[in-house]
Amino acid sequence: xxxxxxxxxxxxxxxxxxxxxxxxxxxxxxxxxxxxxxxxxxxxxxxxxxxxxxxxxxxxxxxxxxxxxxxxxxxxxxxxxxxxxxxxxxxxxxxxxxxxxxxxxxxxxxxxxxxxxxxxxxxxxxxxxxxxxxxxxxxxxxxxxxxxxxxxxxxxxxxxxxxxxxxxxxxxxxxxxxxxxxxxxxxxxxxxxxxxxxxxxxxxxxxxxxxxxxxxxx
Length: 218
What we know:
Elements: H1 14-37, H2 44-50, H3 55-61, H4 65-70, H5 80-86, H6 94-106, H7 113-125, H8 127-155, H9 163-190, H10 197-215
């Protein structure tokens, strides 16, 4: 969480796919070993062995065991959907575009309920890891607000003359989008069906649009 999505972005090459697979393998190894032996007891050497990589390779991907345990957050970096969103124009519905953007971002997130559930349990058991995860999500929120600011400035060039107001509006829009994404994530993780996270995000933004239309109906 069909809208235009990451399908419009160029598919990763073989080297990038291998990099992504290795990174995910390391993260899965952390979760598996933590559930079997306890997070505090496992070492980077054990994680590396379980992921079939060397400790040196581990550190090519993660600075610490904590970073691997926290997992990757959503990211807008490198998505063609970012520029599409910025350049849609003032006649386009802002939240529709934001939904498409976040749906595209969600396709880079692990779409495996079991793995996500194991990470959620680990984070609940270790407040330090939970705090690090929240920091990752706050970084994404800031990234989203900056992109929204560029969209609003493109829609209304005069808004750049009042940077404080532009920042506040951008932050508000980003917070609404982020909250809708979090709502979609919760629905997806708790669902029994086979729908993807991207599907859940699309549905959540459709609900947002319906709710806003109903609220402001004359």
